[in-house]
Amino acid sequence: MPTPLGLLATRRWLGFTVFALVVVLACVQLGRWQLHRAEDRQATAREVAARTSAEPLPVQDVTAVGERPAEATRWRSVSAEGAYDPSGTVLLRNRSLDGQRGYHVLVPLRLDDGTVQVVVRGFLPAPGPLSAGVDVPAPPEGRVALQGRLVPGDAVDGPDDLGLDEGSGVLSASRADPLVLGTALGARVAPAGSLRGGLVEATAEEPAPPATLAPLPAPEAGNYGLNYAYMVQWWLFALIGVVGWWLLLRREAREGSGQDGAARERRAVRA
Question: Which residues cross the membrane (predicted)?
């Protein structure tokens, strides 16, 4: 009478067991990978939340002239005071907010120490096609105080896509490298040795911005809960593989026992 252990000694079941073991181990490892992904995303979310909720630092303490901010300062809450230079306004094309297409409005802010920091004042919806007429709100005159989040901006090789927007008559670009844009705008807007790296996404301004400019949303924490769900899914697959392997082994052992019993009965009848 075959037993489960006896069946495991056969070549067929030995090969099937090795295959099942490989599948189960792969599922376990994939579950562990999803667990590590979830933990990494959760740690990043906590770090971003800590940076955005921290007491704002003066932007001069976080950024430097001619240098991109360190990645560790991304989303850091900062404050700035100075005067906007509307002649340096740049629209970032192909942006969207809540499913609506539009622009990010960038304006240089001349700080009290004479350096320049590029500020993203907000999102400006496009009234139709991006080439249609766009009424870009002018920044307030005189002194401005603001708070915002620091982002490094895009690292690009050169202002190859900087040009005049047909609808608004304002300079537009598809990528935001403040150092490159500052060079393209020229010494009148950002004299040599005055432009700070990074962008400040404004979250509050005094005077307040017009209602047509929507503030950019806070950074998303990331759906790390989905990674936990995938982890459970892979480990369930591993458990199903083990249980399925054992049930198949038991069933074949029982069927073998039944066939042996029937053969004995036939031999007894013939005798």
Answer: 12-31, 228-248
Of 252, 233, 241, the C-alpha closest to 23 is 241
Asked whether the beta carbons of 244 and 16 are under 8 A apart, the reply is no
What DSSP element (H or E) covers 17? helix 11-53
pLDDT tens track for 112-149? 988 999 999 999 998 765 555 678 888 999 999 999 99
Domain ranges of the chain: 4-44+223-270, 54-206
pLDDT tens string 79-101: 999 999 988 888 888 898 988 89
Residues contacting 269, CB < 8 A, separation 6+: none
Closest CA to 92 of 126, 115, 127, 65: 126
Cα separation, 226 vs 224, whole angstroms: 5
